[in-house]
Specification:
This protein is α+β, with helices and mostly antiparallel strands. It folds into 2 domains: 40 residues, no CATH class; 101 residues, Orthogonal Bundle (Arc Repressor Mutant, subunit A). 38% of the residues lie in helices and 19% in strands.
């Protein structure tokens, strides 16, 4: 949890309600990265994480090595597409609205738009999907709600 609330009561409440860690602002980016690395090292510490890799079926994303593979074959993605796929892999089973995805992945960048998001999803689908069948796509469109990572067998 990252917040500006530094009182011990807030820290206790945050951890008691499910936060693995509690970091208050202002903070040093090196400390944040160290805490994230520690979380990723935990056995089963983050859902869908195997070692450094995020896994969904035969799709693997290694954020440390900046590498994506599908069925053991390298998949080449743009930095933004990589970040978007990583976002979905870190949040399996969650449906996100277009606005939420834009705010979390694009942040304050000038190219943040629904059209840009749709284009990125098309590129990811083209790069990683095994079939052209939209009902089998790794990223599922949830009608009138948003997108989510499709469960993999």
């Amino acid at each position: 949890m990252l917040t500006g609330k530094s009182a011990i009561d807030h820290k206790e409440e945050g951890i008691d309600t499910g936060a693995d860690d509690y970091l208050t602002k202002p903070f040093d980016m090196r400390e944040l990265h160290a805490r994230l690395r520690a979380l990723l090292r935990r056995p089963g510490g983050a859902a869908g994480v195997t070692g450094n890799c995020l896994v969904a079926g035969d799709l693997e994303l290694d954020p440390v090595k900046y590498r994506v593979t599908r069925g053991g074959k390298d998949v080449h993605l743009t930095p933004k597409d990589f970040a978007l796929l990583e976002f979905f892999l870190r949040n399996p089973d969650h449906v996100f609205s277009v606005q939420t995805i834009l705010s979390r992945v694009w942040s304050y960048e000038s190219d943040a738009s629904p059209e840009g998001l749709r284009a990125a999803i098309r590129r990811i689908r083209k790069a990683v999907d095994i079939t052209d069948d939209p009902t089998e796509s790794i990223i599922e469109n949830v009608a009138r709600v948003g997108y989510r990572l499709r469960k993999q067998n």
